[in-house]
Amino acid sequence: MSPHYKLIYFNARGRAEHIRFIFAYAGVEYEDERISREKWPEVKKRMPFGMLPVLEIDGKAVAQSNAVARYLARQYGLAGRNEWEALQCDVLVDTLGDLKQVLAQFRMEQDPIKKEEKKARLMRETIPFYLSKFEKMLSENNGFSVGSDITWCDFVFAVSLENFEHIFGKAALDQYPALKALKIKVYNIPSISAWVGKRPTTES
Amino acid sequence: MPPSYKLTYFDLQGLAEMCRYLFSYGGIEFEDVRIKREDWPQHKDKTPFGVLPILEHNGKVAGQSIAIARYLAKKVKLGGNNDWEDLEIDAIVDTMNDIKLKLTPMLMEQDAAKKKVVLEAAKKDIFGFYFPRLEAMVEKNKGYLVLGRLTWADFYFATIFTVCESMIGEEILAGYPNLKEVREKVNGLPAIKKWIEIRPN
């Protein structure tokens, strides 16, 4: 019997969307609970470390989006074919995390001059550095981020690339054809396409 | 024959020490390569993403300290006994990593006066929020962070928070005896004790 899953997050794609993609791809039912901003302060107190997303599996709560995604990936054959491929999924997800961390630091910067400097550095150096490396890897690996089949790492990329397009415009990925092709490949998977078609439309 | 694993980092504990601990604990021979700062520019472009540590094995390379640690932990039996236990370990490691990420702006702050202000805020908002929760987890888990036994989460804690402490320049675990004990327990393991005696830095 399938475990009872409840995914708790805000009404957003954010840090939960790649988990929702895993459920959709695996054809696994789950409760997609979305907490409103008003309810959040009260819910926050009940969460293990005051943060979302949290996944409840048969009533047991666990936090950390990538820990949860990795677990589900293992249950549903999305973690690569062996331990080295599993490691490669982790490497790429964490490397993308490094890039997101730089983005987060830019967004959090209060000082307007420092913020402009950080933005310039991001646009000129950091983003092109990472994206061109990812681009090279993908084109050398037949369009999959790891191994020769879909992994949870592809979902993490696809979701991030969707956000990237939202921030920088649809044409932003044109200079990265392999990344663009990966996003299209993932979003064209029937189960993913069906999910994207029916999910709540949110800003982020 | 050279060891089949090569770990490359700077000549520091930093992000690599947890991996060095895991190799030592498991009795796995490894080449402990330490790059001097002045030599880094010539090595940087040879790494997958311009950062260290990297692990080389059988002609393949992987970066990211936590990913490497998770992989090594399985080999030395400091992972979970099943996927759910791995999830519990991952969740606590990622939580500790969140703490480290939140500390980064303060650790990187050059201005001494600003740093002091940010540190005081960190003590209240970051340590003050997370450490009591971690302390309670250790109480619940018989002296370990998770699963009631030694896991790589304890290695993460012992190494990373030691680095944070030395960067902050003062004790951060005062008032958290359980957490202090986790670190002492890890550092007191025979294989780790031996490593600490012989390590270059």
TrEMBL record, chain A:
Protein name as annotated: glutathione transferase
Q: Which PANTHER family match?
A: GLUTATHIONE S-TRANSFERASE (PTHR11571), HEMATOPOIETIC PROSTAGLANDIN D SYNTHASE (PTHR11571:SF224)
Q: Which terms does the UniProt entry file under GO BP?
A: glutathione metabolic process
Sequence similarity: Belongs to the GST superfamily. Sigma family.
Tell me the PROSITE patterns matching this sequence: GST_CTER, GST_NTER
* SUBUNIT field: Homodimer.
The chain positions of domain GST C-terminal read 82-204
Q: Which UniProt keywords apply?
A: Transferase
Automatic annotation (TrEMBL), chain B:
Q: Which residues form the GST C-terminal domain?
A: 82-201
Keyword match Manganese: no
Say which family it is in. Answer: Belongs to the GST superfamily. Sigma family.
> Quaternary state and partners of this protein?
Homodimer.
The record's EC number reads 2.5.1.18
Q: What is this protein called?
A: glutathione transferase
What GO MF annotations does this protein's record show? glutathione peroxidase activity; glutathione transferase activity
Catalytic reaction list: RX + glutathione = an S-substituted glutathione + a halide anion + H(+)
The answer to whether the entry has keyword NADP is: no
Going by the UniProt record, its keywords in alphabetical order are:
Transferase
